[in-house]
Amino acid sequence: MSTADVLVIGGGLHGLSSALHLARDGADVTVLEGEFVGRHASGASAAGVRTLGRDPREMPLALRSMEMWHQIGDLVSDDCGFHAHGQLRVFETEAQIAAETRRIAELEAHGHTNEQIIGQDTLRQLVPGINPKFIGAAYADRDGAADPHRTLVAFRAAAERAGVRIVEGAPVCRLSEQRGAWRVETAQGAFAAPTVINAAGAWGARVAAMTGESIPLSAKASMMMVTERLTQTIRPVVSIVGRSLSFKQSSQGTLVLGGGIQGRYDLDSGRTAMDFHALARGAAAAEELMPAVKGARIARCWSGIEGKTSDLLPVICPGKAAGIFHIFGFSGHGFQLVPAAGEAMAGMVTTGVVPEIFLPFNAERLTTKGAAA
Amino acid sequence: MKTEHDILIVGAGPAGMAAAVQLADLGFAPLVIDEQAMPGGQIWRASEGPRSDAVRRALGPEYAEGADRVARFRLSGVDYMPGTRLWHIEPGFQVFMSRDETAFSRRYRAVLLATGAQERPVPVPGWTLPGVMTVGAAQILLKTSAQIPEAPVWIAGSGPLPLLYMRQLLALGGQVAGFLDTTPKGQASRVLPHAMAALRGRGDLIKGVKWLRQLRATGLPWLRGVRDVQALGQDRIEAVRYTAADGRVHEQSAQVLLLHEGVVPSIHTTLAMNCEHDWSEAQGCFIPRTDERGMTSVDGLFLAGDGAGIGGALAAEERGRIAALGIAGRLGQDAPAAHLHAAHAGLARRLASRPVIDALYPPSEAQIPDETVICRCEELTAGDIRVAARLHRGGPNQVKAYTRCGMGPCQGRQCGYSVNRILSEEYGQSRAETGFFRIRPPLKPVTLGELAALEEGREAP
Amino acid sequence: MFKQLTDPKEPGFQVFVDGMAVSARPGDTVAAVLLRTPPHLARHTPVRESPRAPFCLMGVCFDCLATVDDQTSVQTCLVEARPGMRIERPRGKLKVAQ
What we know:
The complex is a heterotrimer.
Chain A: E1 2-3, E2 6-9, H1 13-24, E3 29-32, E4 48-49, H2 59-69, H3 72-76, E5 87-91, H4 94-109, E6 116-119, H5 120-126, E7 136-140, E8 144-145, H6 148-161, E9 165-167, E10 172-178, E11 181-186, E12 189-193, E13 195-198, H7 204-210, E14 218-220, E15 223-229, E16 237-240, E17 246-249, E18 254-258, E19 264-266, E20 271-273, H8 276-289, E21 297-303, E22 306-308, E23 315-318, E24 324-328, H9 338-351, H10 368-372
Parallel strand pairs in A: 1-12, 2-3, 2-13, 3-9, 5-16, 13-24
Antiparallel strand pairs in A: 4-8, 5-7, 6-7, 10-11, 11-12, 14-22, 15-18, 15-21, 16-17, 17-18, 19-20, 23-24
Helix pairs in contact in A: 1-6, 1-9, 2-9
Chain B: E1 7-10, H1 14-25, E2 31-33, H2 53-75, E3 79-81, E4 84-90, E5 94-99, E6 102-107, E7 110-113, E8 117-119, E9 132-134, H3 135-145, E10 147-149, E11 153-158, H4 160-171, E12 178-181, H5 187-191, H6 195-199, H7 202-217, E13 222-223, E14 227-232, E15 239-243, E16 249-253, E17 256-261, E18 263-265, H8 268-272, E19 277-280, E20 285-288, E21 301-303, H9 313-330, H10 337-351, H11 354-360, E22 373-375, E23 380-381, H12 382-392, H13 396-403, H14 416-427, H15 431-434, E24 446-447, H16 448-454
Parallel strand pairs in B: 1-2, 1-7, 2-3, 7-21, 9-17, 11-12, 11-17, 12-13
Antiparallel strand pairs in B: 4-5, 5-6, 8-18, 14-15, 15-16, 19-20, 22-23
Helix pairs in contact in B: 1-2, 1-9, 2-4, 3-4, 4-7, 9-10, 12-13, 12-14
Chain C: E1 2-4, E2 13-17, E3 20-24, H1 30-34, E4 43-44, E5 51-52, E6 65-68, E7 71-75, E8 86-88
Parallel strand pairs in C: 2-8
Antiparallel strand pairs in C: 2-3, 4-5, 6-7, 6-8
């Protein structure tokens, strides 16, 4: 049996980030990944680095993360393909402008200045070719997007350089506790450590159940599509108020379209399937946003399985059993939070104190009792 | 044309046409879709085309049979939709297609994939240069357009198709500067074990021997035991370089270089449907698993023709009939057992000489040079794949994610086997174990506008 | 690169390749026409602007992509030439009209 100070279950970006930060703090860390690193939500991510429109309860963590994204090379020795070209949420009615203005004023009242309202002229400069029916946008100029695979490679390599051991093809089948140590049985043998981080994404509740803890969690499989390469004209990530669309152009020139339209998934096999009648709505929204992209060919569509909570906030907290820590359920917007969540997780594991920025993410809020309180 | 059909047949080549005719005989009314403008598949492509007698004569009696098959298919009255691309199948089966840049989807109880084969990609340095094509491509140009390559023409590779094509080309007054035969020396000894089985397919082999004799009689420069073929040039091929059997390197002026190393089943649709596939050592490719009625591991999804294993047009027709009987049974109308037995006996006869052909012309196992482009779409080399493999030790899907290899419009149809081969060499594991890319829809690129219009539930054009 | 064995009995028609009139015949695919029209290309690739010509002619390789009657990235080996058809050979990434 192999031993470590910390076992991380799940080789997605959050698992890798926690492992990296802990190893930098001197811990002996092993990551146990069921398939291969980044197989599900992390590898299928649109890789938006967004504070725009975030739930206020996530803002402290998102803002700390944004600082780290702007210096991401310091953390993982690679820029992860991150470009801060901004994120935009466009709107078409005066009523929407009013609502967005109110929302941003409220943010400012809390001291957050990451968003501003821009008018049509600025919008047209930022998104040449945008449908003139869109009259303005909420804009976060320090936001942007990264390259998901490059980010995975960078976090993995940095973790390995820091001494993290990564075991792939090791799905976890059982957890048990004996005299202060957790024993984790996997398809590649047993591992033991006093501390276990549950970063199992959509399978997070299953891992929690193995420790005797019940956490309500569902899943989602947001569909993505990518087109052939087009000349570079759009830098920011664009979404439309009230519609399921996120629209960006990658550095290769491909249009990467997402926005949370749901495909089908099966947690047992880990497989996903497209729902093209639903995806057609995303294509229609893209065409509406920018009519000239109508003729661009879709090269590929995919989705990954991601954990989803009832309030769409993640679960990041100590487990009920001693030595267990949870970090999963990011509900489709965890990519941006990766650097800071790992940093704070390492602090929480090392000190045993739940940091303030994690307080909104306790698992109890999701149980009926917690919700009623 | 009816708008509702229980059965969809994808592909109007030998297998698809035979299956359609058989199903019509049994009282079913399938819909046949095909990417091409005319029925016949690649082997009998443009059978109805307005070609001259000289071209028809040169294409030979095997091609002439196609006209009769196409006529029979037309006469069967089966609904047929040419120029139609299949781009996705949802289980159950909701099938997504496009025609005239208009996408639509329909539901079927059974689907028969008769999508045939593609030529095995032959990555050699310079194979992306204009002027370098496949032998099959040149033959298609002959069939559709009576079009022949301009001298100097070099043909490199192995297998029956180069021999057939050179015979046709020479008959039409074309020239071949040289046939760079890359078949490894000493293949005859590998063939002996299959001799007994082949006796049943004697006719095919005698035909082959006759071709060879005729070809030799033309005085065609036939260089055996050639290796390390390369295309040289800036914006198009200017010369071909190769190492002769005696180890000497030659460089010759070239206008056209045609490559061929056999054909492999088209597996993108069955991979996308998560069908089970097996690695065939004999044919050096993955083959979707089918049962005795031609059904894949996905209930209701049938497969016929070269897509179920390379066997040629006549074997494809038998497989088409077998699958048709299988589909009839699946839809509750069992045909007499004798029908199925007869088709299986026919298939065995048609496949009898195949082991000899497979053993005579094995795919190249030589290492792909580092500088050779293997992903034509993303322009990545064998060296790029090796670097990614050494860095990440991942399978084909991880290498794809890290390098973009296989992410272009061809979706890995040209690089899939090269990646499989390189990773299997790097990791010292079998080709079967190494596996192939996971295939993402759409199987053929559709435009955003086409997909957006799907929402309106538009009917087929 | 390729030449057609013409039959005087066969009627022909015109298509336009990058604005230039080129003769075609019934049954010709657009790819076949490109392979006998100098400089015998379909396009320059969007990745490195390398010149490419139709390669497989059976819908597999996607090297024959060109613009046909304003529709971009058409597999020209799967499309029959029709009288008056306009074919453009793209250079590099497709431009999004604004």
